[in-house]
Design brief:
9 strands, 4-stranded antiparallel sheet, single chain, mainly beta, elongated
Amino acid sequence: LDRYEIDDFQPGSITPNEVQQRSFSPVGDIDQATFLGRAGQRYCILALPQSAGVDPVLDVFMDGATYSNDNCSSQTTPLVSCLCPTGTVGSSLAAMVELQVPATGDRTVQVRVRNQGSYGPDAWYVLSVSFRAQPATVAVGDVYEPDDAIPRALSLFEQQQHTCYPAGDVDRLS
């Protein structure tokens, strides 16, 4: 057991730029943590194996959406600010999610880490949440957000430029 147990059912906390040493023990262990994502900020959430046989799966929950990854190098959406680790024992099995918090306010972010590899007292990995500065060229949403649930007004002949960011963004107009 690691010092964060029992977090299978009661998530502990992790703060941005914190690194936590965790283990997958006993068999079936699931680790969870939460942090406060600040409005408009971008985060890299990483589960990096420290032992052979550990293969983490990362699920990140915010605003009813789930962002998952089980292999950093096979992202379905390209990473903008985060880099997949290289050169370590488990870098090829690392899981990473890049998350953009909406500019409209702070959000509670929940992180769940599952394992599709070996369990036991020597099945260690590192969980980290790091803050990433926004590159000047990165779209973080548009000035009309939030417009996923409540439509924004659009006048006849008016032009509006919207982004489709973050993943799953829906723009509703009336």
